[in-house]
Write a structure and sequence with these properties.
The protein has helices spanning 14-26, 37-46, 55-58, 63-71, 92-100, 113-172, 179-210, 223-240, 260-276, 335-345, 401-413, 424-434, 450-458, 477-485, 498-506; strands at 7-10, 31-33, 50-54, 81-85, 104-108, 219-222, 244-248, 255-258, 283-291, 294-301, 349-353, 361-368, 393-397, 417-421, 438-442, 467-472, 490-493. With 518 residues, the protein is α/β, with parallel strands linked by helices. The protein has a five-stranded parallel sheet with strand order 2-1-3-4-5, with helices on both faces.
């Protein structure tokens, strides 16, 4: 039972409670009967969507415990209290209850079953909106805390260079400062100014990228050279901490189609992160390997590590990992935000792995290889060739524009005709115009999510036979069941297994819906 959505019952007699519970159960409303007012107060502390109590319950002295809890509710909470009143509904007891409680609805007895059900359902809908407000407030509070922490870090990082700058200015201002000594002070001032410029550039960069203001200049690139350039940029940090750097780039064609400056920035940021969050004389490794049509780059260290609940959150703009600030040698903590944004702009993915605090971190980047589209009759690593064409018209729907556009570009390169939508309503409009034969739908979209979109497509005679593939980050058992029940033929987890996705789009269309749990 979902404690926060249940209706707590306290009626005059056990028989009344059983009847009310049975009525609510038939309406698929969860309820729990309380034997006494003290039990009602105890269960209320555990959570409730509404209270349904008889008027006689209000006269029990123990009901004061319930009133005290209701009067101490959080600002977002206004628990509905439904009172089953005797005819007239104007007793002193009810009047006093209405004066002490804010959200009271009086239902006169005898009452119709339909009236009871609709009143309770309405109260639960109102309670559901309160829970949504709670989640919103909690999210805002967490974001505000992260922003406050970020601004404190920013102030600290900007003050750090000011101290040596002030000292150096005082030293070079002395009339008896020898020229060779003054030069060393000028060099130090230049280093501190460069550091401040880098901090400000990082802030501007992350702002541009998150607002979609960055344009890539893609060209064929050897990833080995990109990594060498990144190592050159990170060498001062690595050498200063006396880290051992191991590089493993096997022979082979590691050509990617990307912006060399931006990809160098990606791997330099990862190496800088590893250097900063690893104690002196640590180990930093970078390894390149094949992953189907992708190239996978692993950047591993034996430093501070990450707790399991931070593996995804660490890419957030204002997120700082608790317990690691003393290990890192400066920085704003926005390097991984830049990395994630730039990698996704290149049609790739990035994820973090760690066995916990103090056990090191691994950042794993995957990028499409430029040679992922082989010539006909020359299949490589399971990627289908054009000898086995994809279904013709494919609808791609994802509120993440980079994800949608990059997948559409891949499908187009493989010979399909993709059509892109960024929300459910646009997807329905496009589907009505082009009659796609398949659709790849994101699930976690705002407004109309992927499951509702799939149900609406399945409910249309024009689209009932469309191949539907869910592409989602939701992978729990109940998520898979919900996705299958929505009418999807297949379910793939993000990041997409590209060969598997392409294989599904090249298979002959089977009658019926497989509801695959893949």
């Amino acid at each position: 039972m979902n404690l926060e959505n249940r209706v707590l019952l306290k009626t005059t007699t056990p028989r009344d409670a059983s009847l009310a519970a049975a009525v609510l159960s038939r309406a698929e409303i969860e309820s729990q009967t309380c034997a006494g007012v003290a039990e009602l107060a105890t269960e209320l502390r555990a959570g409730a969507g509404a209270l349904l109590v008889a008027e006689e319950t209000l006269a029990d002295p123990a009901f004061r415990l319930v009133i005290d809890q209701l009067q101490a509710q959080a600002p977002w909470s206004d628990l509905p209290v439904l009172i089953l009143a005797r005819t007239g509904a104007d007793s002193v007891t009810i009047i006093e209850a209405m004066e002490q409680l804010a959200n009271v609805t009086v239902i006169e007895r005898p009452l119709r079953i339909s009236s009871l059900v609709t009143t309770v359902a309405s109260a639960l809908r109102a309670r559901s909106r309160q829970y949504q407000m709670r989640a919103l407030l909690q999210g805002l509070e967490e974001a505000d805390q992260r922003k406050t922490q970020f601004l404190a870090t920013l102030a600290h990082e900007l003050r750090n260079p000011l101290s040596p700058l002030t000292t150096a200015l005082a030293l070079v201002s002395r009339p008896d400062t020898p020229p060779e000594e003054a030069k060393s002070y000028y060099d130090m001032m230049q280093r501190q100014i460069d550091h401040m410029v880098r901090l400000i550039d990082d802030l501007m960069e992350v702002s541009r990228i998150t607002r979609g203001k960055v344009e890539l200049r893609p060209e064929p690139l050897g990833l080995g050279q990109v990594i060498n350039d990144a190592i050159d940029l990170s060498r001062p940090l690595l050498d200063a901490a006396r880290h051992e750097l191991r590089v493993d780039v096997p022979p082979g064609d590691w050509t990617v189609h990307g912006d060399g400056v931006r990809l160098t920035q990606v791997f330099a940021n990862l190496l800088n992160n590893a250097a900063k969050y690893t104690p002196p004389r640590g180990l930093v490794e970078i390894k390149v390997e094949r992953a189907g049509p992708m190239v996978r780059v692993r950047v591993r260290d034996n430093g501070a590590g990450l707790p399991s609940d931070m593996l995804s959150a660490v890419f957030g703009i204002f997120v700082q990992v608790p317990g690691t600030s003393r290990v890192a040698q400066g920085g704003l903590g926005i390097g991984l935000t830049l990395v994630k944004s730039l990698v996704e702009l290149h049609g790739g993915t990035v994820r973090a792995a760690s066995e916990g605090l103090g056990k090191g971190t691994e950042l794993i980047v995957e990028l499409p290889l430029a040679a992922m589209l082989p010539a006909a009759n020359d299949p490589v690593m399971g990627v289908p060739t054009r000898a086995k064409p994809l279904v013709e018209r494919i609808l791609v729907v994802d509120d993440n524009r980079d994800a949608a556009n990059s997948l559409a570009a891949l499908l187009e390169a493989l010979g399909a005709s993709p059509f892109v939508a960024y929300d459910g309503l646009d997807a329905l409009d496009i589907a009505a115009q082009v009659r796609p034969t398949a659709a790849v739908l994101d699930i976690g979209m705002p407004g109309m999510d992927g499951c509702e979109l799939a149900q609406r497509l399945r409910g249309s005679a024009a689209h009932k036979d469309m191949l539907l593939i869910a592409l989602s980050g939701w992978g729990q058992a109940d998520d898979r069941e919900r996705i299958a029940d929505a009418g999807f033929d297949h379910h793939l987890l993000k990041p997409a297994d590209v060969p598997r996705l392409v294989a599904l789009l090249t298979e002959p269309r089977h009658l019926g819906h497989a509801k695959s749990r893949a």
